[in-house]
C-alpha cells in the first residue's frame, strides 16, 4: 500500500473499493484487505490518520478485522465518509474517534447474507452463523449510538436494508454532518446487489459507465463474497 499525504504526525488511508479477505481477492488498487491495512498501520504507528470511505462493503470478516485494527491504533482517527459507507464499510467507518459525513453522503446498513449449497441441516447452520455474525455487527453499532437510541431500532433497520443520508445518520449514530460533497464518484460496483439503492447512486453509476473506457464487466460481475 502506498501511504498518501504522510507528514511527521499524520497520514491518509482510503477505502475506495471493496473490502476483501486478501491480496488475491483485490481486483485493483482501491480494494482493501486486512494485511494491507496492518502494514499501513505498522508504518504510521503513533500518527494521526485521516480515513476516507467510499465503499459498498465486502467481506464481513475482513471488515471486522480492519475495524479492530483501526480501533487499536494509537493516534487520532478522523473518518470522512466521502460518498458511501455501506454494509461492512459502515462498521469500518465507526472505528473513527471523529466521523464526518456530508449531507449528501450515505451510510447503509443491512443484515449479513451469504450463499451456499447443502442439505437442510447445513442450511440451518448457515442461518445460525449469519445470526451470530449479525450480533457482532450490532455490537459495533450499539457502541456508537447516540444517547437515547435503542438498538432494537437499528435491528429493524438492518432487517429492511436502510440507507441513511448524512442528516439521517446523525439521528442514530455519533457522526458529524457537513455540507454536500460534489466531487465524489459512485462507490464500488458491489452495491449493485442491494435492493434499495437511492436514485442518486444509480445516476452516478450510469454516468460512470458512460465515461468508462471499457472496464472488464465480466471481471466485475465475478465479484462474490462469502458474506456481506
TrEMBL record:
Pfam families: CLP_protease
GO-annotated biological processes: protein quality control for misfolded or incompletely synthesized proteins
Gene Ontology cellular-component annotations: endopeptidase Clp complex
InterPro entries in UniProt: ClpP, ClpP/crotonase-like_dom_sf, ClpP/TepA
Keywords: Cytoplasm, Hydrolase, Protease, Serine protease
Superkingdom of origin: Bacteria
GO MF terms, alphabetically ordered: ATP-dependent peptidase activity; ATPase binding; serine-type endopeptidase activity
Family (UniProt): Belongs to the peptidase S14 family.
Database matches in NCBIfam families: Clp_rel_HeadMat
Listed name of the protein: ATP-dependent Clp protease proteolytic subunit
Organism: Peptoclostridium acidaminophilum DSM 3953
